[in-house]
Design brief:
Blueprint: H1 4-19, H2 30-38, H3 43-50, H4 55-61, H5 72-85, H6 87-101, H7 120-137, E1 143-146, E2 150-154, E3 157-161, E4 165-168, E5 174-179, H8 191-215, E6 235-241, E7 248-254, H9 256-268, H10 272-278, H11 291-299, H12 316-326, H13 334-339, H14 346-353, H15 363-378
Parallel strand pairs: 5-6
Antiparallel strand pairs: 1-4, 2-3, 4-5, 6-7
Helix pairs in contact: 2-8, 2-9, 8-9, 14-15
């Protein structure tokens, strides 16, 4: 049996083949992981993200370009705001952490800001882990980790993540900091944007928990539940511009629910090597391929499309078109799909509603026929649906 190292090397070579020759991998970020966890049954997204395929370029090559991405103005504004928040050694950021999350702790008067530079993501991950250990052991001091690098195991493959900041409190606990450029108006922000930020921060919390477990900073076992020792805090700090200014303000966001959901969904993901092994030999997702070959490669991996994908995946327009063309009821939404039981296509649904097919004792079929009768009565038409 090959060793884990040999299997890992073979998998990396296989994923590189799927991307195409000399195509660099697109790193997974927390936003992509949060979206992936929201649809764990989609094998297509799992293998494309695992292989580091640029889904935006792939969607354009398929003729269904995505509308994702920020404008250059928004990126510039966001970078400028983040620089302001972290200026002077993160003095304002640490003040906000103390004010919103740790009033019982010592007020921050200066802080350690370790250098996290290293070669490659693996090197940066190791350097971050070392800095976290040193900061945790240096009780009584505040430490700010600016853009640390974390690794999270996703379906058997490591994903490297880079939160805006992680703060180590004087008691040795760790807090994730998310800096966003959308405003907080009168102390509150757009709930949809806050929810997206919370799901993204939950991914960082999961990654930090893995680091803490490896370092032994988190006691293991049932007796450790709620232990006051070094831990990853489940309340993160969301920093945004105040009203219409460029002044920072912050809010503490509890991400326990998002963390639990994300952990459960990531655990359900099919292992990437299993999906790769099931693909036809020579499968490649390079956008440079002819359109017909590229379409065939993408369609060789089953997708689980739902309308929610439109706000989370670059391939959503392509998958929606395919779902509609096949008449799949998933294009109507997960809740509708769940109500229809074994009826998987729109034609099956209409046929059952007309009384042409389907078991009349099936609750879904009975409900469809009743709805068809009510519709006919409302329109003054003769019902063609059997009474049973």
């Amino acid at each position: 049996m090959p060793s884990p190292r040999t299997r890992g090397t073979a998998l990396r070579h296989r994923l590189a083949e799927l991307r195409g020759p000399d195509v660099p991998a697109k790193a997974l970020d927390a936003r992509a992981l949060a979206a992936l966890a929201a649809n764990p049954g989609c094998r297509r997204r799992a293998i494309l993200d695992g292989a580091g395929v640029n889904k935006a370029a792939l969607a354009s090559a398929l003729g269904a370009p995505s509308v994702f991405g920020q404008s250059q103005f928004a990126l510039t504004r966001g970078n400028a705001f983040e620089a302001r928040v972290k200026a002077d050694g993160g003095a304002e950021l640490l003040r906000l952490v103390h004010e919103r999350l740790d009033r019982a702790g010592e007020p921050p008067v200066g802080a350690r800001v370790p250098d996290l530079t290293a070669t490659g993501p693996e090197g940066r991950t190791a350097r971050t882990a070392l800095a976290l250990r040193e900061a945790t052991e240096a009780r009584g001091e505040w430490t700010l980790l600016d853009h640390p690098m974390l690794a999270l195991d996703v379906a058997g493959s490591p994903a490297f993540l880079e939160p805006d900041a992680v703060v180590v409190h004087p008691d040795g606990s760790w807090t994730v900091v998310e800096i966003k450029s959308f405003p907080m108006l009168d102390g509150s922000a757009d709930p949809a944007k806050v929810g997206a930020a919370a799901r993204q921060a939950a991914v960082y919390v999961l990654a930090l928990e893995q680091v803490a477990a490896r370092l032994g900073a988190l006691p293991q076992g049932p007796a450790s539940q709620g232990a006051p020792a070094s831990r990853v805090r489940h309340r993160v700090l969301l920093v945004c511009p105040k009203d219409f200014s460029n002044l920072p303000t912050a809010s503490a966001v509890d991400v326990r629910k998002q963390r639990a959901v994300t952990a459960r969904q990531l655990a359900r993901l099919t292992r990437i090597e299993d999906i790769a092994d099931a693909l036809p030999a020579g499968t490649c997702f390079s956008p440079e391929l002819p359109a017909a070959d590229l379409t065939a490669a993408v369609e060789s991996v089953p997708a689980t499309y739902a309308p929610e994908c439109l706000s989370a995946c670059e391939l959503a327009f392509h998958c929606r078109a395919r779902s509609r063309a096949s008449g799949a009821v998933t294009s109507l939404g997960r809740s509708v799909r769940a109500e229809l039981g074994g009826l998987t296509t729109v034609e099956d649904v209409l046929s059952a509603a007309r009384g042409e097919t389907g078991d009349p004792d099936d609750p879904a079929v009975a409900a469809l026929r009743r709805a068809a009768r009510l519709r006919a009565e409302a329109l003054g038409q003769e019902a063609v649906v059997p009474c049973r």
